[in-house]
Write a structure and sequence with these properties.
Helix content: over 70%
Strand content: 5-15%
Low-confidence stretches: 18-28
Amino acid sequence: MRYRTILLSLLCVALLSYTTDADAQRPTRDKEKARQWQSMENGPWDFAPDWYYYFLHKKYSGAEMYWKWAGFKSGFRVRFKEQKSNIKRIMPVRVTAEETQRQKVKKVEEERKYIKELYKEELVREADRNVDLTYPAYKDEFNRMQDCITEGLLYCMKKSDGKLKYQVDELSRQNEVLCADIAYIHKTGVGYGLENAKRQQAYEDAKSRMEELVSRTARLCALAATHY
């Protein structure tokens, strides 16, 4: 009988130990703590127990007391307002950081597209610079005026028997400079070429300068014919 009592006592102790271990290993959920963390993250702004937070943690919980009509259950209640809290959520900081990162990525993408468009535009300009499409429209006119200038200056030298050499040399020098400018405009390749729109404007300016030289040569020819 004595051994039986001892055996039953040991069995009870073993059962109690198993129950304690099982309770220790069973996961527990603190609903009040969970509500607190949800409020700090991205859940509803709510805490429990409400009166505890109202009296002891009003500043950071944003708790306020209000009257609620509910018949016989009317009375004061506690509600929580985030705008009255002196702390901020964790999630808005994360959201702001994510939005900032998105804006950075967006800006980089916009800059990449802008640079890509500039690159394409530069390729088009480079192709345009490598082919002079406007010179043929001015070539014949330039050649005609050059013949007038050359023949006129030769006439002046012969007619004046060299006495108009200074005037002839000055007009020849200006004509050489103008011809060099036209050759530069017509030149293509890296570092030389112009877009055809700019070439056309440059050729127009050169044409005006050459017409002026033709006019001055004609006046010098008239002078030579009159005085020599």
